[in-house]
Amino acid sequence: MFPSFTGNSRRPRQVNLSGRNPNPFATPGSAGGQNVAVVNAQQERIQRQKERERLHAAKTLQRTWRGHNSRAKLKSLWRTEWDAHEHICSEKQADTYHTSYDSAEDSLMQLRLLAHFFDPRSAADVRRLLHYFSRTSWSSNDAVPTSAFLPMAFLKLENHCLRALDHRIDRTSGVKQLSEEIDALLEALWMITEILPHQTALNADKFYHTLARFTRSSQLSQRMSLFQRVLISPLRKIHSETFSAYEGFISKYLIILNLHEFLNVRNGLEELADHVNIRLLAKATADVLSRQQPWELVSNSKFQARLRLNSRERLALLTNFIFFHRKAHNFTKPEAYSGNDDFVAVVSKLLSSLADEIDIEARTFTDSSADVSPQSFDEFTQAQLISLVNQESIGGMLRSTQNQPARPKTSDADSVASRTASTVAQNLAGFALTLLRLFPLRGDEIRMWLYLGSTDKLAGTNESATKFFWDAVRQTHCFRAITRDSKAAFNLLKPRSQSLDSGWQPPRASEVQADDLDDEWRLIFTFMELYTFMLKVMDDEEFFSRSHIGSGRQTMGTSSTRQNALPLTAIQELSTFLKNLGFTLYFNGVDLSKASESAWTSESISNYFKHASSHIVARTPMKAEVLKKPSLSIAGLAGISVDYVKGLTTGLLRMIYERDSRRKFLPDDHWLMTSRFDMDSFIPAVVEEEENRSRLDAEDDGEEDWPGEEREDAYDQFLQGITSRTPRIRQVERLRTEQRKLSRQRYLQAVAPRLEILQNMPFLIPFTTRVQIFREFVHLDQIKRRNGYTDPDTWRMAMHSSHRSTGENELSHYHAKVRRKHEFDDAYEQFYPLGSALKEPIQITFVDQFDTVEAGIDGGGVTKEFLTSVTSEAFSPSDGIDFFVENDQHLLYPNPTVVEEKKELLRGAGVQEGTTDWRNEMSDMMQRYEFLGRIVGKCLYEGILVDIGFAGFFLLKWALTGGSGSAPNESGYRANLNDLRDLDEELYQGLLQLKNYPGDVEDFSLNFSVTDNIPLGNGRTTTLTRELKPDGANTPVTNENRLVYISYMARYRLSAQPLHQTNAFLRGLASIIQPSWLSMFNQSELQTLIGGARASIDIADLRRHTQYGGVYVIGNDGQEHPSVRLFWRVMESLNDRDRAAVLKFVTSTPRAPLLGFASLNPKFSIRDAGDDQERLPSTSTCVNLLKLPRFTDERVLREKLLYAVNSGAGFDLS
């Protein structure tokens, strides 16, 4: 321990050879000896340095004062000289204000002096300025100095005027004198602008910055007419620098929110709009926005000042820009300006930058320039934004691009046309995508208007909207690269951080490419939104109507949806892109989250705490931005989150996969991506990921769950008592909360990337592999719940032992006595309180109608018969209210009118609505649905196959309620026209005819309401009418909105009407089987999981995996017993129906296991039952055992076997 120990415990002497005092708390001069001279020398040097600095500071002060004093004396001398000259003129002429200068030299001399001595704070200098311009206005053209003669003097004087006006904006003393001075300054500015239009345009930033401050002040209302002249003066004259004037006007003045209120005198905003060249305004705004992101505007003035616009200013610029365009077209014909490329580009960029900061429906926005909660904006702003959402403008955007004049058919012209079309498509896509994000409640209308934008009859053979966007998408670099290689998607999805340097620089090549990629992604997402809407209203016949690449041109007699159908080869290409994109989003989700969070942290958090540089502070004071919610974004696109893209990609890909599942048109191995995995270790890896996720969920369940809203309110109340900086601290606290959520989400993605794929894109993995994973999940859950005792008997013994000391009989909760033909009611009464504990082994005792216990020990077989009997009774028609009903294919789905039927039944019984009895009855019905879900879940959990067929649209809801939960709204079940076929064939055909009707659909007198027929029993019915949308009864169905009507009708019939009963069933199902497990399968695979494979029973496979007992045991010779050979000969001769009956007789299920009879547990077994030829075969379903007498005749064996199978007498037969 002490390697330098010398044997002496005495502390060694510390020798200091440096001359420094070892005491850190000693004064500098406290050292002794030789160190005193060193310390004293240091102190003297410090004193001399201080003296030099003091003398230098004194010289600087004296020099500054002398300079100031000299300048003041010189300016005073100039003022005296200037006044003397004007006094001489006044002696010559009686009225100096109405006399002109004698010559240009005279005027220039006075101008030069005035520009040199003018003090913006001096009222006398302001009067001199007004005096000068009054005389200049009366001068002849020869006596007026021109801009080419002395422009800098006038420009300097203009800056003096702007500073003087800025100095007087907030003053309140001397109202009369102040008013005169402001009038004089405005007059002077107007005159200078008229004389120097070019220089004023170059000085537009300062000019409009000052006028913007003046607009917000209380001085404006008294002089609106004069102010308007000054405001529009730089914009009126067209010259080489007019564009710069418009840029300053845009970046400094149009960023005033509620500008219409400040200019409300005599409709000032409308008058201003009348004098603005709308084409120049759109072009200038688009040009400014094209250089940088809209929240980092760069002015092209000579100062090249970087302007960072907050959300309030961007919202104001957008509002005023839209108003000016609407005013230019007299607030009519929105298609006239929606087709303008610059208008679309400007609105698209501004809207996209505000996507995460404004809520148009709630009329609120997050102001990034202040530490406050979301603020509201007025109806004027809301009206301008809502004006963007109308059929004429959205539909007109596409029509305007298709009516371009034809170009010569040359290669160069084709290339230019292709690039132009791509650019137009990208602008339209950005505009449409942002509208969809900002107006989610009107999403279907926006998609429909865009979809119908190319079907104008006057346009003849217009190209379809889908084809227009599809052609543009196929040309993008993103689409081509990801389609070729799924690994290329990651680099294209990563967000790119943006630096904020002090000044503007020309974009580098990489930045240009990054901007192009942003536009490409917006184009791709818009096409995905549009095509998703199309698939919702497109039936299978229209979907498969084009089997090859065609022109996509509409011909006479072709429906609009059929015209928009893509060729199957194009759909294969699209599905490959979506598959590769989705794989990267889920499998590499953690890496994307890290990149996105890093980009957000570098931009948002750094800007939150950093201080602006001195030159920016001096020019445009910067305030700390409010922290925004760190939503992970794709490729750095504002408002486009990772979750949104996941949901959009998954939803569209699933819709294509469902079409392929119903009618195969893609290659067999098209959907699989097993090459990206090590399939040998795939199942163990997935099981390990599930264990990690379960462990994390268990840790979260152990933490205190405090709802976010209540926590924030309580926290705010606490902070209000101790500090005045509540908003700032609240924002920091919210930031920390969001960061914790991001860390959890990223961790889940890191520990379970394969689970992400299985739950969201399961078709990438073979079905048999997923079934094995499902059984492994169940086995893992059983081990955790039963403390390792997966065998039912062992678990019961452990439970009995653990509760013996307490005297409790816990096992009694898992035992039930069930009457024949009353299985569901008895099971509901005794097992509903168990909840998720129904997963544990249960014991059933059957009794007959005389309450006599049936023979048989439940080793699992009685439980299987119980479950199949319960499901058979519950899903069969009854004399009362049916919980499930059948479609034309005898497939089951929840009774959509069951809630209303129950209410009518209660009303007929005299039960008052809202009473306790009413609520109990309605709750009991929902609990029965929930219990049914548990029973079906129990069958899946135990691997028991039941002979039940569910409708495809109902099974889809099972598959789409799971997933990672990252994007439930987008990746959840989406009602569509084709699913209606499984519900109501007649309704499906009617809506199909409505969609393709060539005439005016208003002839049918339909509106956005639906009438339900509610059965009352005894053949009586009643009707109930509901609206599909607000004021739907007064909204007629027209040719323009019929697709929305079809979409709303499908949504109501498939989702809204059966909502409560479906949710109750799925809630019960989820208590037994985790929804994420079910999300690994599509609807047809789920049906196979429930009822087994519907293929013929493979007798050879059953024979290979059968075990024998008693005298039937195979001996050393390897030969089967003669009776066993007779049995297999009979089985091979039976038809499929009888084979299934025999299988059900032995195993209680008529179908083979999904993974073959090798997975049947216990194994199918046969043992002898004596040599009595009159004895019937019997079974022990608990062990899948067939007790077969030693028959010697094949005919007798066949008769006895079929008689026993078809008797249905339960376990007492033998």
TrEMBL record:
TM segments? Answer: none
Coiled-coil ranges from the UniProt annotation: none
The reaction(s) this protein catalyses: S-ubiquitinyl-[E2 ubiquitin-conjugating enzyme]-L-cysteine + [acceptor protein]-L-lysine = [E2 ubiquitin-conjugating enzyme]-L-cysteine + N(6)-ubiquitinyl-[acceptor protein]-L-lysine
A biological process term (GO) from this entry: ubiquitin-dependent protein catabolic process
Q: What is the lineage of its organism?
A: Eukaryota, Fungi, Dikarya, Ascomycota, Pezizomycotina
Say if the entry is tagged with keyword Transferase: yes
What is the organism of origin for this protein? Viridothelium virens (Speckled blister lichen)
The UniProt entry, under CDD domains, shows:
HECTc (cd00078)
Give a GO molecular function annotation for the protein: ubiquitin protein ligase activity
Q: Which residues form the active site?
A: 1182 (glycyl thioester intermediate)
The EC code for this enzyme is: 2.3.2.26
> Know the name of this protein?
HECT-type E3 ubiquitin transferase
Bias kind Polar residues: ranges? 1-21
State a single Pfam family of this protein: HECT
Top-level enzyme category: transferase
List, for all copies, the residue spans of the domain called HECT.
838-1214
Q: Which SUPFAM superfamilies match?
A: Hect, E3 ligase catalytic domain (SSF56204)
Swiss-Prot/TrEMBL keywords: Transferase, Ubl conjugation pathway
Recorded hits in PANTHER family, A to Z, give:
UBIQUITIN-PROTEIN LIGASE E3C
